[in-house]
Amino acid sequence: MKNNCGCGNKPKVKRPQPHPPCPDITINISTINNSLYEVNGKVTCNKRPLQGVFVKLSSSSDIVSFPTNPVTTNATGSFLAVPDVATNTSATKVTITASVIVDGSAITTSQYHIFGNKN
């Protein structure tokens, strides 16, 4: 007679499904013209936009600064900053870092871009 109690069977372990980090931040840098640039991005949690998050921006070089800092995300989780670039500067590789703290979790992301201002 076969015993159907399930004795001796290994219990099935449910593994958590991976999900995007929370918060998550993206950053993009665009050249508008030879002395005007934009830094924009988005802050999300599990792919949902986060509104009202303060995004602190920093630069690896003194030639780039942010007159409005931090910037705040809008209803779509997006942010936009227009950095100041020092005049009479040649093309320089600069790393821009965006940092946020959401519910006690801090995250940063960085991207480099070539900045310069020959005006």
What can you see in these coordinates?
The protein has strands at residues 24-33, 36-45, 48-49, 54-59, 64-65, 71-72, 78-81, 84-85, 89-102, 105-117. The chain is mainly β and 119 residues long. The strands form 3 sheets. Strands 1, 2, 3 and 7 form a 4-stranded antiparallel β-sheet that branches. A 4-stranded antiparallel β-sheet has the order 6-4-9-10, with no helix packed on it. Strands 5-8 form a two-stranded antiparallel sheet. The model has no long low-confidence stretch (mean pLDDT 87).
- Regions with little confidence, pLDDT below 50 for 5+ residues: none
Termini Cα gap: 92 Å
Sheet of most strands: 4 strands, antiparallel
The outline comes out as elongated
Structural class designation: mainly beta
Order of helices and strands: EEEEEEEEEE
Count of discrete alpha- or pi-helical segments spanning 4 or more residues: 0
- Share of helix among residues? under 10%
Question: Mean pLDDT across all residues, rounded?
Answer: 87
Radius of gyration: 23 Å
